[in-house]
Design brief:
The chain is α/β, with parallel strands linked by helices. The protein is built from 14 helices and 14 strands. It has 2 domains: 6-243, Peroxisomal Thiolase, Chain A, domain 1 (3-Layer(aba) Sandwich); 254-402, Peroxisomal Thiolase, Chain A, domain 1. It has helices spanning 21-29, 65-68, 73-89, 95-99, 112-123, 134-138, 142-151, 166-179, 197-206, 238-243, 269-283, 301-315, 328-331, 338-352; strands at residues 6-15, 36-37, 50-51, 101-106, 157-160, 185-192, 229-237, 250-259, 290-294, 324-325, 354-355, 378-379, 384-391, 395-402. It has a 10-stranded mixed β-sheet with strand order 5-4-6-7-1-8-14-13-9-10, with helices on both faces. The longest helix has 17 residues, at 73-89. The two termini are 25 Å apart. The model has no long low-confidence stretch (mean pLDDT 97).
């Protein structure tokens, strides 16, 4: 069997921008930021108070109380996004397809909400035992396993944890499995819920979180803003999607990876550029064919400068005509789920012919000399787009998408 074309037929999202894909896209198009004061816990003793949480989230809307008790907040987000993606795709899983469908998700922190509560009861309150489901609740593969059990999927299922590149690595691996004929469909993406006191204190210590908002590529940027949520997509071979009359939102055409092998927290422009070039090579594309990049764009001083340098090294003069925006300015940095949120934003941008903007942009930084689509969405005729993810530990992943017409 030769390489197959792979298309996206289902989208599901829950994030600070809304609790479904339509709300997510509307907020991106209208440049509405989901960043605000965190109300999930007391932030009095933190240096920062803002985050991009899933506002108004009530698990009772999605789960029976007993079922919700088996799932940490992050896994709930993954299941909710997967349900929407499957429903959106219209795919029907017969026994044969269930056995040939993969579930590959990404998560950086896993079940931190419950883990924080459990460890607090041990270390602060002197508890002598923990609930018997503690391990199933905190394990990073909880969302993957829950999606598998809910849908009866028996094909390959696993979770990737590569910090902020987790979801992009998951989507890329799923793409390769389907393209190479190892699977006939996949549910893939990422989910994260980092708003526990311990995790926030850990991020406070590294001094990269903004005290106000996220301004990627702006000269006065002050850091990243943490976010949470889940985003999943259903992907399948083009022939199968056409045969069942599915709506096709975009085509995945390439995936590239690299590792910096240099520093645990400081990104490398060379490493990022290698991943971009690998994605282009995998897709059989020339740099000049790319019409949009959804940047990693965290809003930290080092990341934005490094990413701009990587883009210029790959695209050269074409950079002057290449729009690059960071949607983290609106949905926050959702860590292991970030690549999935941004991949979906890229798919929607190609589908709708509208580029989501970089919100909160103020003053250009000469070191980030890019067209960042500031503060207002823009019409586009782009045929190909990239979604960049560059993680702590120097682990890079880049996805390439094509508009489907």
């Amino acid at each position: 069997m030769g390489a197959r074309r792979v298309v996206v037929t289902g989208l599901g999202v829950i994030s600070a921008l809304g609790q479904n894909a339509a709300e997510f896209w509307t907020a991106l198009r209208e440049c509405r930021s989901g960043i605000g004061p965190i109300d999930l816990l007391d932030c009095t003793n933190l240096r920062f108070r803002n985050g991009a949480q899933v506002w108004g989230y009530n698990p009772d809307r999605y789960f029976e109380p007993k079922a919700a008790a088996f799932l940490d907040r992050f896994a709930q987000f993954g299941v909710i996004a997967a349900r929407e993606a499957v429903r959106h795709s219209g795919i029907e899983f017969c026994a044969a397809l269930r056995a040939r469908t993969a579930i590959i998700t990404g998560s950086c922190t896993g079940g931190q909400t419950f883990e924080d509560t459990a460890f607090r009861s041990i270390y602060r309150d002197g508890a002598n035992r923990l609930p018997p489901l503690t391990i199933p609740l905190i394990m990073a593969n909880a969302a993957t396993s829950s999606i598998s059990m809910e849908l009866g999927i028996t094909g390959p299922a696993y979770t990737i944890s590569t910090a902020c590149s987790s979801a992009s690595h998951a989507i890329g691996n799923a793409f390769w499995l389907v393209r190479n004929g190892m699977c006939d469909a996949a549910i893939t993406g990422g989910c994260e819920a980092p708003f526990s006191f311990g995790i926030l204190k850990a991020w406070e210590a590294i001094r990269v979180v903004s005290p106000d908002t996220c301004r990627p590529f702006s000269k006065d940027r002050r850091g990243m803003v943490l976010g949470e949520g889940g985003a999943m997509m259903v992907i399948e071979p083009l022939e199968a999607a056409l045969a069942r009359g599915a709506t096709i939102h975009a085509e995945i055409v390439g995936f590239g990876m690299s590792s910096d092998a240099s520093h645990i927290t400081q990104p490398s422009a060379d490493g990022a550029a290698k991943a971009i070039r690998a994605a282009l090579a995998d897709a059989g594309l020339e740099p000049e064919q790319i019409g949009y990049i959804n940047a990693h764009g965290t809003g930290t001083d080092v990341n934005d400068v490094t990413e701009a340098a990587a883009i210029r090294s790959v695209f050269g003069k074409h950079t002057e005509r290449l729009p690059v925006s960071s949607t983290k300015s609106m949905h926050g940095h959702a860590l292991g789920a970030a690549g999935a949120l941004e991949a979906l934003a890229t798919v929607m941008a190609l589908r709708e012919g509208i580029l989501p903007p970089t919100a909160n942009f103020t003053t250009p930084d000469p070191r980030c000399d890019l067209d960042v689509v500031p503060n207002q969405a823009r019409a586009t005729q782009a045929e190909f787009a990239l979604s960049n993810s560059f993680a702590f530990g120097g682990l890079n992943a880049v996805l390439a998408f094509r508009k489907f017409v």
